Amino acid sequence: MSGREKHVNIARLAAVLLVTGALVAPGAPVRAQDAPPPDAPAQEPAEDPGKAQRFADHDAEKALEVIRQGGIVEVMEGLDRLSRLSSTKVTGDVVAMALSRSERHVAEFAGCALARCDPQGALDALAARLEASSAPDAPVLLQAAGMLAELPAPRSVELLDSERLLRSRNAAVRRESILALG
Questions:
Q1: Cβ proximity of 87 and 60 under 8 Å
Q2: Alpha carbon distances (Å) from 124 to 58, 115, 131
Q3: Reduced 3-state DSSP string for the chain
Q4: Could you read off the pLDDT of 110-138 as tens digits, one per residue?
Q5: pLDDT, tens digit, for every residue of 132-174?
């Protein structure tokens, strides 16, 4: 196809888009869509929220099954699936998995996924781990700081500013906590 034919085809496409309203000419006012006519059929009732939550919980369990397969690709795929849901069903298991892994990016991505899926549950689970009577070891604390970096403030900031993280004896844990605080 020659350059002239391409130009003609692009001009035709622009004309079609302009006519159908999919393309707005420069400087033209943009209007909101008009209200539907008054004789429009009534919309169907909204879906049952309990049913939607059961589907989300089921999908969260499926994502957890993928995470439990163990490979890094599967873990990241499962966390990606979980980030698209809103479910409290698997939060504790995901936190436990992320803290037990050695890859820092897994903890950070788990924090992102849980920030979307169940931020309050993730913060509660991490607080329980940090406030437990037996102190977690340094790798677990590093993972916890990585997760907290992605969870919503102000509670994540309070957890980062704790004896076990920001005032830890381990320099790497303190450094990661400072980085997580931004």
A1: yes
A2: 22, 12, 10
A3: CCHHHHHHHHHHHHHHHHHHCCCCCCCCCCCCCCCCCCCCCCCCCCCCHHHHHHHHHHHHHHHHHHHCCCCHHHHHHHHHHHHCCCCCCCHHHHHHHHHHCCCHHHHHHHHHHHHHHCHHHHHHHHHHHHCCCCCCCHHHHHHHHHHHCCCCCCHHHHHHCCCCCCCCCCHHHHHHHHHHHC
A4: 999 999 999 999 999 999 998 887 878 99
A5: 878 789 999 999 999 999 999 899 999 999 888 999 999 999 9
